[in-house]
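Tokens as discussed.
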């Protein structure tokens, strides 16, 4: 589901950002739309001034890695409004870039890593990453991931 246009044009973008958490947990938006709001706002832009810093920040915060030189160059082109391709998907705007980066398997792997760090204070192993990524990728639901982790014996401390 494309996220771009309607959120980019919306005058209440700051309010959308403030309501993102509530909207996610009430199922008004999915995980992709939640992260779209988190990185498509003036505060994130001000912190990560310029297209290059914006792209690097998205890769580091969402995918937990640095972009390759080709990924960086193509993503900057896209964010700057030029036609380009990232992860075998074409786009020509910042909105396209955000849609692409928040719909990749590495994005969902990053969400799993974040959840494990938050709830279990450790990195997930490769089996956990694969399993949990499969669980949330089709649904784009953070609640599913949280339920999986919170049911673990390790979390409950038994």
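Sequence:
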């Amino acid at each position: 589901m494309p996220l771009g246009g309607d959120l980019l044009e919306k005058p209440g973008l700051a309010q959308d950002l403030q309501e993102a958490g509530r909207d996610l947990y009430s199922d008004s938006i999915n995980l992709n739309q939640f992260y779209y709001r988190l990185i498509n706002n003036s505060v994130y832009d001000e912190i990560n001034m310029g297209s290059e810093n914006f792209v690097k920040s998205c890769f580091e915060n969402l995918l937990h890695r640095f972009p390759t030189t080709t990924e960086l160059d193509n993503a900057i082109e896209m964010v700057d409004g030029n036609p380009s391709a990232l992860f075998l998907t074409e786009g020509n705007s910042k909105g396209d870039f955000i849609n692409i980066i928040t719909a990749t398997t590495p994005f969902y792997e990053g969400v799993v890593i974040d959840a494990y760090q938050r709830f279990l204070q450790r990195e997930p192993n490769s089996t956990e990453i694969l399993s949990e990524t499969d669980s949330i990728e089709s649904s784009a639901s953070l609640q599913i991931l949280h339920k999986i982790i919170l049911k673990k014996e390790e979390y409950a401390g038994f």
